[in-house]
Design a protein that fits this description.
The complex is a heterodimer. Chain A is α+β, with helices and mostly antiparallel strands. Chain A has four helices and four strands, in the order αββββααα. Chain A has one domain: Ubiquitin Conjugating Enzyme (Roll). The chains are: A alpha+beta, B mainly alpha.
């Protein structure tokens, strides 16, 4: 179903180009449409503010029947993002994935996760612990990371 | 291998067949749910003659019977709740076949019960596909029905000119092809049939999903019905789907278990061994394929007399410590007298060095002469020698030694039981020899084969008895257990030794036959005593373990 996959990716890409999501840039790889580069501007009122966070989205040939793989390329201090850039988000899990879910929805969900970390389902438990017990310390560290790696 | 003697299996057959055949007609529901109160010594069990209080009754079911069980439940719910059969099936699967809970929830709040199970009516607010084109000809031209939505008021379907674009593959469908090429469930999220097909194949074949395949729309929890799936996918996928549904039905039921033996398709039904009883029952059952299994944990053989949980702990421990234990499994040892390398090639632990004729015990390497006396200590770990370990290093060494003591005996009996399998072939040859030179009939030489059977069974029990002993706390009860263990071990070794004797003349055959017959009967007796006492001990809460059960 390579053609389904390509057609769908093209359609989603053109939709995102025509009506871009605020604070988000999407760019496909120059010679491979199956890889996108996504840049999310850190939400205001968060320690990630003013940071630019880059992600890659990797679409398999089975897309949209299998979820895309998303990976943070910019280091960030966040309970749901590990040092390798993996992120933990429900709708991207194979068993929860719905083929009708659009990339715009996925990106929106990631944006929401940056804005509101989910310490109950952490990928880095030490950061999650700090997030719940020492919010100030967490924010300081996250802001440090943001200015060091994301600007 | 049945651990309770050969005659017992026939008693079981009769007992459970009578008891269950009547039950089945009257009250299949009860067999689906756990009995509320279970008393192992209840009169119901004593009624069955000669059944031991620690035994369970069971029934072997075919796949068709499992399918029939589901159909019966579904039609029952269908008529009680007045819903279509496929809805009844989805409801039952959602409530894990607990029809009482389902009915309670349903009568409490039908709408939310339906929605929770993935049967939300179309009027419920779900995110809808924006490009959804209503199709006026849908109901008449489509073979697929939208289930309960048929009873609900149809949406106003204005004739919307223009084509439909599948939100998944972005293909366009003209108005005429929409009814035949696309499909939507009651939630009215429409997609093309090719995408449906692809999606279902990924879910069924790729992920092994069956009962909870939802609509493709994000956020829509509507479950795809059986007949829809059967209609959309190829035959092989549909077959796989139904296999998965049956597997889930068996897995969800605490009274059913697949026979774990390769290529066996039978299912065991047992209502007397719910999970909470497994701290006092070891529900060994026999499948129609001829193999034993534990109904409690699915272990593909009898692990009596050890509780499922202890077996699990033991296996994990053995896997963890396998590196240190590896050397123990090596098949060669040196003679303690002349240092010749000896390979153990038979099941017996009474070794005689071919070179220097030194007789010793393969397990403890001590002289065999001591094993014949009342000072026999091979089965018991001398805890005292471990106690004087003062510092932690010595303590951990002592605990490793303690473990290795039990593990080596456990592994040794396992090894011996396997070698006894080879003894079968040797024994067969010997039986031929006896028929020829001893003028014995075929029937008269069967004693040897029967004795090998008894020896193998006893070795398996002995093997597990060492796992049991490892976890038992040291007290008087444990001493009694170890006495029984020692007696059985000695009896088996004696029998094993006799079975390996070579035959010389007619006179010695007669004596050997007498010896083996007597020794096998004694092994059987010691085996039954150990088994009976240990299993009863659980019911009487006599055993104290060093771990929480």
């Amino acid at each position: 179903m390579a053609s389904t996959s390509t057609r769908r990716i093209q359609k989603e890409l053109s939709d995102l180009m025509n009506s871009p999501l605020p604070g988000i840039q999407v760019q496909p790889d120059e010679d491979n449409l199956q890889i996108w580069r996504i840049i999310i501007n850190g939400p205001s009122n968060t320690p990630y503010h003013k940071g630019k966070f880059q992600l890659t989205a990797d679409f398999s040939k089975e897309y949209p029947f299998k979820p895309p793989t998303l990976l943070f390329k910019t280091k960030m201090y966040h309970p749901n993002v590990d040092s390798d850039g993996n992120l933990c988000i429900g709708l991207l899990k194979t068993e929860n994935w719905k083929p009708a879910t659009k990339m715009s929805g996925v990106i929106q969900a990631i944006y929401d996760l940056i804005e509101n970390p989910n310490p109950d389902d952490p990928l880095v438990s030490s950061i999650a612990e700090q997030y719940t017990s020492d919010k100030k310390g967490f924010e300081k560290k996250a802001a440090e990371y943001t200015s060091k790696y994301a600007t | 291998m049945s651990s309770d003697g050969e005659n017992d299996e026939f008693l079981y057959e009769d007992a459970y067949d009578d008891a269950f055949d009547q039950d089945d007609e009257v009250d299949d529901l009860d067999s689906m749910s756990e009995p509320d109160v279970y008393d192992a010594l209840s009169p119901a069990i004593e009624e069955a003659p000669q059944r031991k209080p620690y035994d369970v009754s069971w029934k072997v079911k075919t796949l068709q019977e499992i399918i029939d069980m589901q159909t019966k439940e579904i039609s029952k719910i269908q008529s009680v709740l007045e819903v279509p059969p496929s809805s009844a099936a989805i409801l039952l699967r959602h409530y894990v076949w607990n029809s009482e809970k389902l009915q309670e929830q349903f009568w409490n709040d039908p709408a939310s019960a339906l929605e929770e199970a993935g049967l939300s009516p179309p009027s419920s607010p779900t995110t809808r596909t924006s490009t959804l084109p209503p199709s006026p000809t849908r109901r008449t031209t489509r073979s697929l029905k939208a289930g309960p939505s048929t009873s609900l008021p149809k949406r106003a379907r204005s004739i919307n000119t223009g084509s439909f674009e599948c939100p998944i593959c972005c293909m366009e469908f003209d108005e005429l092809s929409v009814p035949s090429q696309t499909y939507s469930m009651g939630c009215e999220h429409r997609f093309c049939k090719d995408c449906w097909k692809e999606y279902l194949v990924v879910k069924i074949k790729g992920e092994g999903e069956s009962a909870k395949i939802q609509c493709m729309e994000s956020g829509c929890g509507r479950v795809v019905r059986e007949e829809v799936i059967d209609d959309l996918v190829e035959k092989d996928v549909s077959r796989r789907y139904h296999n998965l549904l049956n597997a889930a039905f068996v897995a969800d039921s605490s009274t059913l278990r697949w026979c774990p033996h390769p290529n066996c398709e039978y299912i065991i039904q047992c209502t007397q061994a719910p999970p909470r009883m497994l701290n006092q029952l070891v529900p060994t059952v026999e499948c129609k394929c001829g193999h034993d299994l534990c109904f409690g944990c699915g272990y593909a053989a009898s692990h009596r007399p050890v509780l499922c949980k202890i077996v699990r702990l033991w296996e994990k421990k053995c896997a963890d410590d396998s590196e240190t234990a590896n050397w123990l499994q090596a098949n060669t040892k040196e003679c303690t007298k002349c240092q010749s390398t000896i390979e153990k090639n038979g099941g017996c632990n009474h070794m005689t060095c071919k070179k220097c004729k030194w007789e010793f015990c393969w397990v403890c390497m001590g002289p065999w002469s001591e094993h014949g006396t009342a000072w026999y200590q091979c089965n018991r770990f001398d805890e005292k020698s471990g106690i004087d370990a003062r510092d932690t290093q010595a303590k951990s060494r002592a605990s490793l030694e303690r473990y290795l003591h039990y593990f080596s005996r456990w592994a040794n009996h396992e090894h011996s039981a396997k070698l006894d399998g080879e003894l079968y072939q040797k024994t067969e040859k010997k039986m031929e020899q006896m028929q020829n030179s001893g003028n014995l009939s075929w029937i008269e030489v069967q004693f040897a084969k029967q004795a090998v059977d008894v020896a193998i069974k006893a070795r398996v029990t002995l093997k597990w008895s060492y796992c049991m002993a490892f976890y038992l706390k040291r007290n008087n009860m444990t001493e009694l257990f170890e006495d029984n263990q020692r007696d059985l071990e000695r009896a088996v070794e004696t029998l094993g030794y006799s079975l390996e004797q070579s035959i010389s003349d007619t006179e010695s055959i007669a004596k050997l036959r007498q010896d083996i017959t007597n020794q096998a009967a004694y092994v059987q007796k010691r085996h039954d005593i150990l088994m009976d006492d240990t299993l009863k001990g659980y019911l009487e809460r006599r055993w104290e373990f060093s771990v929480d059960i």
